[in-house]
Every structure is written in structure tokens, then in C-alpha cells.
């Protein structure tokens, strides 16, 4: 089971910086959405592919091969970075010390909309990684599902993400990314609450977990791409810093979510259900910040102000 979070994390290593600048070069938000949506969907699906890749590696090699694979992925990433050109013109490149960069990140958190976008995606990723960390025990150990069936159940979440991503692609021009993101967070929160109730009362057996988990993870198609596209589109002058902040919050929330599942393990799926429910609640509350008016003096009048 330990291979699942590790392999999931390895497939999540997609930098946001180049995407941020690429989106800044496209002035209309409608043109930004296809690029951001595709990249963010790939980033969201990657952690879910990790367990399947880890399982395939174990079929042909030992568990040590997983870590050699991780090392190979890291080296390939470094090699790719060496050939990746810098698209930002030299006059616009920041050479500020790291201490100043930390101050800028703190300044970003003072803006309601930026915090709303980042928090909506960050909390959701906490729930996603709780799903990755908790389902092996909940399905295989607690409900005695075979590893093969577990792979099918896990893969169903990927199908759900692909479906909602296509729905989002068709609706975003009509309803807007913010509205779809808020709808996704509401759905994730409701699915998380149902999951926690089912896990606590043991209602529905295996399907009592499978259905709400599928609904929760499927909300990725509405939340992830729209939250990042909204943050970058609303504050293009700080796109690089905003993308770094969002990426940090996603990783940090994922670490916390998976750690909480392990810390409160009690031999039942309840800790996983509780963490996912709290993540869904946090996501929907942060999404409400996007719809709320910006307080005066906190950057409402100048969203692109540095």
C-alpha cells in the first residue's frame, strides 16, 4: 500500500510556472481556458494513475523498482528543464532575494479572491490525497476487495474526471469558470458529507463508499482547472507568484490530508471519510470568497497590482 501515495506523488510533478506565463500571453480569458483546462486536468489525473502504475511495476519487478522509476522520472524532468527556454523577457525577470519572495506570497494571501481560488483548489487536493491514501485500506483490507477490483474502482474516478472535464469544457463559455467552480465545490462538499456519514454508520457497505467517493473525485473537472484559471486570469500581473502559491497550497494540503488519514486511523474508513468531508467543506467555503466583494483597501480596485 505504501507504493500508492509515493507513486501518485511522482506523477504529480508538473510545473505551473511555464503555464502561468503562457496564460499571460493569451489576453482573452476564453482563450486561456483550453490551455489551463488541459494541463490542469492532466495534473489532476496524474495522482490517480500513480497506484495503477505502481501496481504494474510490481507485476514485473520488485518494490525497489518503484523507487528506481521515481529516480528516473526525476532525472528526465531535470533534463527536460535544461531544454526549456525562458519565455519571460529579461527586463521583466525578477531577481529579488528569496526573503522578498516570501513577503510577496504573504501579500497575495491578503486578497480575498486570490485566497478563495487558492483555497478552493487546495482544500480539494487535501481530500483527493486522503482518497489516495485511504482507499487501499478501505477497499482491500476493510471490505476485502481484490487488488484487481480495487484497480477498477480507482480507475472509475479517472473516468469521472474525464467526463466532468468535458462537461466543463462545454459549459464554461456559457456559465463562466467561477460559477462552475462553485458548483463543483458544492457537489464535493455534499459527496464528502455523505461519505463521512456512510463511513461512520457503515451504511451501504462497499457501495456506500464507492458512490460518494466517485462523486467527490469527479468534481475535479469543475474545481481544479477553473480555480487556477480564475486566479491567473484575475491577476495576470502576478501570474508567476500566484501559480507558485497555488501549487504550494495544493501540495501542502495533499500532504496534510494523507497524513491525517494515517494519524487518526482506527481500523475503519471513518478517518478517510471525515478528512474528505472537511476538505469538501473547506473548498466550498473558500469558493464563496470568490463571489464575495473585495473589502476596500485590499486590492479590490487594482486586482493586478503587485
TrEMBL record:
Keywords: Cell membrane, Membrane, Transmembrane, Transmembrane helix. Its main location: membrane. One of its GO terms (cellular component) is plasma membrane. SUPFAM superfamilies: MFS general substrate transporter. GO terms for molecular function: transmembrane transporter activity. Pfam families: MFS_1. PANTHER family: CHLORAMPHENICOL EFFLUX PUMP RV0191, PURINE EFFLUX PUMP PBUE. This is Bicyclomycin resistance protein Sulfonamide resistance protein MFS family.
Amino acid at each position: 500500500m505504501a507504493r500508492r501515495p509515493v507513486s501518485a506523488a511522482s506523477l504529480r510533478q508538473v510545473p505551473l510556472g511555464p503555464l502561468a506565463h503562457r496564460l499571460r500571453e493569451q489576453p482573452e480569458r476564453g482563450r486561456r481556458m483550453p490551455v489551463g483546462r488541459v494541463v490542469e486536468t492532466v495534473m489532476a489525473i496524474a495522482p490517480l494513475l500513480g497506484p495503477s502504475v505502481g501496481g504494474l511495476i510490481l507485476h514485473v519487478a520488485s518494490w525497489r523498482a518503484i523507487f528506481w522509476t521515481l529516480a528516473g522520472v526525476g532525472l528526465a524532468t531535470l533534463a527536460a528543464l535544461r531544454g526549456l527556454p525562458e519565455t519571460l523577457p529579461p527586463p521583466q525577470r525578477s531577481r529579488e532575494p528569496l526573503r522578498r519572495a516570501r513577503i510577496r506570497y504573504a501579500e497575495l494571501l491578503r486578497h480575498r479572491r486570490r485566497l478563495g481560488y487558492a483555497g478552493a483548489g487546495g482544500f480539494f487536493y487535501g481530500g483527493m490525497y486522503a482518497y489516495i491514501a485511504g482507499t487501499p485500506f478501505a477497499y482491500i483490507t476493510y471490505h476485502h476487495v481484490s487488488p484487481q477490483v480495487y484497480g477498477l474502482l480507482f480507475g472509475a474516478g479517472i473516468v469521472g474526471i474525464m467526463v466532468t472535464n468535458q462537461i466543463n469544457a462545454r459549459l464554461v463559455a456559457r456559465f463562466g469558470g467561477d460559477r462552475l467552480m462553485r458548483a463543483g465545490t458544492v457537489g464535493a462538499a455534499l459527496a464528502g458529507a455523505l461519505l463521512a456519514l456512510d463511513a461512520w454508520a457503515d451504511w451501504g457497505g462497499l457501495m456506500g463508499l464507492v458512490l460518494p467517493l466517485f462523486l467527490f473525485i469527479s468534481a475535479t473537472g469543475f474545481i481544479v482547472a477553473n480555480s487556477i484559471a480564475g486566479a491567473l486570469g484575475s491577476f495576470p500581473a502576478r501570474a508567476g507568484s500566484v501559480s507558485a502559491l497555488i501549487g504550494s497550497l495544493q501540495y501542502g494540503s495533499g500532504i496534510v490530508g494523507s497524513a491525517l488519514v494515517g494519524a487518526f486511523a482506527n481500523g475503519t474508513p471513518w478517518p478517510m471519510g471525515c478528512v474528505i468531508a472537511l476538505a469538501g467543506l473547506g473548498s466550498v467555503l473558500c469558493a464563496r470568497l470568490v463571489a464575495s466583494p473585495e473589502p476596500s483597501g485590499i486590492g479590490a480596485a487594482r486586482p493586478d497590482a503587485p
